[in-house]
Amino acid sequence: MVKKVAITGMGIISSIGNSVEENFEALIQSKTGISRLENFETKHVSEIKVGEIKLTNQQLIEDLKLPKNNTFTRTALLGAFAAKQAVLNANITQINEFKTGLISSTSVGGMDFTEKHFNEYLTDDSLEPFITSHDAGDSSNKIAEYLGLIGYVST
């Protein structure tokens, strides 16, 4: 049995652009996305250069219209930002009208939240949503939830 997959929309956010169009233009112009860190505190700020997405978490939260008390890690925010573009690019208005799924990959999952809250979690159970976001699948689930997708989700 042959299964068919249709890619109907695209979305991307990277260190060279915040959309498919911006990324394409940057690639055509051989633009680099490598720079000094601006959004994260580290003692290595003057030693290393990185491919950093310059939008802050707060800017992403505002663009996605998420509540202030959301538990979206940076990974989930970036994924939702790109997925939102893909859905809009595909002109999808009812995401569950057809059999639809989300397969996402990640490397760090919610490490940014886990490291920030781990010590306090030992005495504060209210931080559990931040600790459980460490699971790489958490970002995929949050992206699907953001899109309203009820189909297949995998990481």
Task: Provide a descriptive summary of the structure in words.
There is one protein chain. This protein has helices spanning 20-28, 57-64, 74-89, 111-121, 128-132, 136-147, and strands spanning 34-36, 49-51, 101-103, 152-154. It starts with 19 loop residues before the first helix and ends with a strand. The mean pLDDT is 90. The protein has a two-stranded antiparallel ribbon with strand order 1-2. Helix content is 39%, strand content 8%.
Largest sheet: 2 strands, antiparallel
Distance between the termini: 24 Å
Radius of gyration computed on alpha carbons: 17 Å
Number of helices: 6
What is the approximate shape? globular
Total DSSP E strands? 4
Oligomer: single chain
Provide the succession of SSEs.
Answer: HEEHHEHHHE
- What topology, given as strand order, has the largest sheet? 1-2
Average per-residue pLDDT, rounded, comes to 90
Tell me the structural class.
mainly alpha
Strand content: 5-15%
Q: Helicity level, as a percent range?
A: 25-40%
> Low-confidence spans: pLDDT under 50, at least 5 residues?
none
Brief summary:
This protein is mostly helical and 155 residues long.
SSE topology:
Layout: H1 20-28, E1 34-36, E2 49-51, H2 57-64, H3 74-89, E3 101-103, H4 111-121, H5 128-132, H6 136-147, E4 152-154
Parallel strand pairs: 3-4
Antiparallel strand pairs: 1-2
